Amino acid sequence: MTAQMSIYDHLGMLMTMLEQQGATIRDLHRTIEKIRSEQHGLSVRVLQAETAAGRSLRLDNISMMVVDVAAEAGISPAAILGPRRDKRTTQARQAVMYMARLDGHSLNDIGRVLSRDHTTIMHGIKAHEARMNRAERGLK
After folding, report:
1. pLDDT at 81 over 80
2. Residue 46's pLDDT is what?
3. What would the pLDDT profile of 17-39 be if each residue is shown by its tens digit?
4. CB-hemisphere CA count at 13 Å for 25?
5. CATH dotted code for 7-136
6. In this structure, are residues 39 and 7 in contact, taking their beta carbons and an 8 Å threshold?
7. What is the model's pLDDT at position 60?
8. Model pTM score
């Protein structure tokens, strides 16, 4: 009997796979969905049905945003997807929320990728907008 892996074990494996094997975003998406299905006890059949309906292409786009923002912020995608609450990680996560919403994604889809509630997504978008407005006015 093998011990069940934690989300952090999966994320570590994911980062190794991406860095060493040149995996694609689709590989990233599949791994994230596997983690979520295990963490939330969802049926893999439900996830496959969503993929068959074309939903995965939109979620892949958000996953790509996570990777891009993480690279720009100098942190790992796992940090954005994880529970960390330090300033740099939180602001990067909120930037992903804002970008995904501008791209037309629903609050629930953004929350699904980032493992957050839709109200957290709303707050993150507002916080990012306020930060951008302060920056435009030359305030800190």
Report:
1. yes
2. 46
3. 666 666 666 666 676 666 655 55
4. 13
5. 1.10.1750.10
6. yes
7. 74
8. 0.62
The answer to whether 110 touches 62, Cβ cutoff 8 Å, is yes
CA distances from 2 to 5, 43, 112 (A): 9, 21, 28
Q: What is the pLDDT of residue 127?
A: 97
Query: For residue 102, what pLDDT is reported?
Result: 92
Closest C-alpha to 76, from 28, 37, 124: 28
Domain spans of the chain?
7-136
For residue 67, the one-letter residue type is V
At 113, is the secondary structure helix, strand, or coil?
A: helix
Cα-only R_g, the chain: 16
User: What does the DSSP assignment read for 82-106?
Assistant: SS--SHHHHHHHHHHHHHHHHTT--
What are the phi and psi torsion angles at 4 (to 5°)?
A: -70, 135
Classify the phi-psi angles of 5: left when phi > 0, otherwise alpha if psi is within -120 to 50, otherwise beta: beta
Cα dihedral angle (52, 16, 89, 75), rounded to 10 degrees?
Answer: -120
